[in-house]
């Protein structure tokens, strides 16, 4: 199967590519504020527009796939891109880079800064405003390509309205499924693109093994836990199930985490709320809240083991599912009928980005005319001046600090 030139460069040395993946994803992990939808905007800007590691269509198809899978969608997209670039090690390296900054920050918070209130700092407000601009840029760019024309545009608008009105955990799965059916029926003549395969260096037999491992752990860990109570095993099981059973990731996982650690006495209510506030303040995936909870739950003097165990457990389902699904993805997405369905799904993803841009990103961030001005300035720096997102994030943090003093 031919490799897509945007996704692979045969002349690159594997170690060089792995190092590049770590550096790029770590930079994203340091600057990606605003939650999973904002992360997809940052990924789109860096991986698609700037580095051109994959096409607009391939990126949209990966987003659609990860929206169907339980777990942290943005982290799964990053893992998939890493696998496409450098195999399973590439997926691990992309995940480590994107996750490590917030894991370290939350471990430090758990150890040292638990009594500090940083939720209302001006610089944090500026960082959240930067996320508004990044998501707006992604909506603008992806919408012009994936929601053009009457039918696709209508699907995007309807999906946005549905996402704003329906707030259940499975609402986005229903929206995507219905949009796929509409695309399958109405966009047959509209789909004319040639699907270039996304490079997946994993065999189908290995993919099946990953999916079986996911199911075996989901079923087997509770049985092992019932056979004998050991806190490390109990902790791993609780966080694995939280990562395996939540669609959409982000804030949806919070009730499962609260149920796992508070009634057991591992974490108090006040500790849980303090850690949640800290998780809101750091970049990267909200699933790294597990680093804080694992640290506090660990009875050992330093809590580092509990922190790393919880992080590994909550992200492991995401890795197993992505590695298991990718080997079959090219064959499925290349079928003409599924291409039509994907066209509808991708239009609905644009609609859900629009909805998320309003709620929770805009509603929880923009409160004053000064906030609007800073968001417009950040959007202009991204789209007109073409500044890199990390620089826009730094400037927005400075702007938020300045606003707080006036």
From TrEMBL:
Subcellular location: Cell membrane
GO molecular function: chromate transmembrane transporter activity
Superkingdom field: Bacteria
CC terms in the record's Gene Ontology section: plasma membrane
Membrane association type: Multi-pass membrane protein
The entry's keywords: Cell membrane, Membrane, Transmembrane, Transmembrane helix
Transmembrane intervals: 21-42, 88-111, 123-143, 155-186, 206-227, 239-261, 273-296, 308-332, 338-358, 370-387
Family: Belongs to the chromate ion transporter (CHR) (TC 2.A.51) family.
Record protein name field: Chromate efflux transporter
Source organism: Paenibacillus lycopersici
Classification lineage: Bacteria, Bacillati, Bacillota, Bacilli, Bacillales
Gene (name only): chrA
């Amino acid at each position: 199967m031919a490799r897509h030139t945007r996704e692979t460069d045969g002349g690159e040395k594997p170690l060089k590519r792995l190092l590049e993946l770590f550096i790029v994803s770590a930079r994203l992990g340091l600057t990606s504020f605003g939650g999973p939808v904002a992360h997809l905007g940052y990924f789109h800007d860096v991986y698609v527009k700037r580095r051109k590691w994959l096409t607009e269509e391939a990126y949209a198809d990966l987003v659609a796939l990860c929206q169907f899978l339980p777990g942290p969608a943005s982290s799964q997209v990053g893992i998939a891109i890493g696998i496409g670039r450098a195999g399973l090690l590439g997926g691990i390296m992309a995940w480590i880079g994107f996750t490590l900054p917030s894991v370290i920050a939350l471990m430090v918070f758990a150890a040292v800064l638990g009594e500090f209130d940083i939720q209302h700092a001006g610089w944090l407000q500026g960082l959240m405003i930067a996320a508004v601009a990044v998501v707006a840029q992604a909506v603008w760019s992806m919408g012009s390509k994936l929601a053009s024309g009457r039918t696709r545009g209508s699907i995007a608008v309807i999906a946005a309205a549905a996402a704003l009105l329906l707030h259940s955990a499975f609402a986005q799965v229903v929206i995507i499924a219905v949009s796929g059916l509409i695309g399958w029926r109405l966009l047959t003549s509209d789909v004319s693109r040639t699907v270039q395969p996304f490079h997946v260096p994993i065999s189908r037999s290995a993919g099946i093994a990953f999916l079986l491992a996911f199911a075996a752990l989901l079923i087997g860990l509770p049985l092992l836990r019932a056979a004998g109570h050991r806190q490390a095993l109990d902790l791993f099981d609780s966080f694995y199930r939280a990562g395996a059973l939540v669609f959409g990731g982000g804030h949806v996982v919070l009730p499962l985490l609260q149920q796992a650690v508070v009634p057991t006495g591992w974490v108090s209510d006040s500790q849980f709320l303090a850690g949640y506030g800290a998780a809101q303040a750091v970049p990267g995936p909200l699933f790294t809240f597990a680093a804080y909870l694992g640290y506090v739950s660990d009875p050992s003097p330093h809590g580092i083991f509990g922190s790393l165990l919880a992080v590994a457990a909550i992200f492991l389902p995401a890795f197993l599912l992505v590695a298991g699904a990718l080997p079959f993805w090219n064959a499925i997405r290349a079928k003409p009928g599924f291409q039509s369905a994907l066209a509808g799904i991708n239009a609905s993803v644009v609609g859900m980005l629009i909805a998320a841009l309003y709620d929770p990103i805009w509603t929880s961030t923009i409160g004053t005319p000064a906030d609007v001005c800073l968001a417009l300035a950040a959007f202009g720096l991204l789209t007109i001046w073409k500044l890199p997102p990390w620089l826009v994030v730094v400037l927005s943090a400075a702007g938020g600090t300045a606003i707080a003093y006036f």
